[in-house]
């Protein structure tokens, strides 16, 4: 086995922020609603310049909502780009100016499932496709659930949305079998299962912890 360096938690096992110089940048496409496409001319240190297109995205939050029996609250929603009705964790864009991330997660849980939660923690932060877009997602764990006082009027794809419960262990099994493919559901359920059967939910980060990757 090649003698590569070994990293450990707290000793180098972390992503490193870095920005290479950009000699030119232009917006080549803008929808006016969610995304834009930016073309950057990049000057790598000591290397040959190159051009990359970047999908500029506001970011998103997702919610793994578990009841007292560790059942996970899911929604089934039509997703036109992939041609599937996907089972998903409640999630949505960070498209409200100045909204705190946890409040965005609370809003999405309420809008999509008419549910509220008293206990919030952070499961994982991730870049969804870092070779293409700056989209970052934060996935929360929500527990101590109860029905919301009022519901939200759903539109477009959400008008046909179905809400279901599934035991977390079954969600994880379906993920590993390739039956569930939504990335927030995949990451969130596996992270929740790891925490539940490892260090425990109480060791997770507080819900209002900084998000350096999103705030750069």
From TrEMBL:
Keyword set includes Hydrolase: yes
Entry annotated with the keyword Plastid: no
GO biological process: one example: nucleoside phosphate metabolic process
Top-level lineage group: Bacteria
Top class in the EC scheme: hydrolase
PROSITE patterns: NUDIX
Single GO MF annotation: hydrolase activity
Alphabetical UniProt keywords: Hydrolase
EC number: 3.6.-.-
Pfam families: NUDIX
GO cellular component, one term: cytosol
Protein name: NUDIX hydrolase
The species this protein was found in: Kribbella sp. HUAS MG21
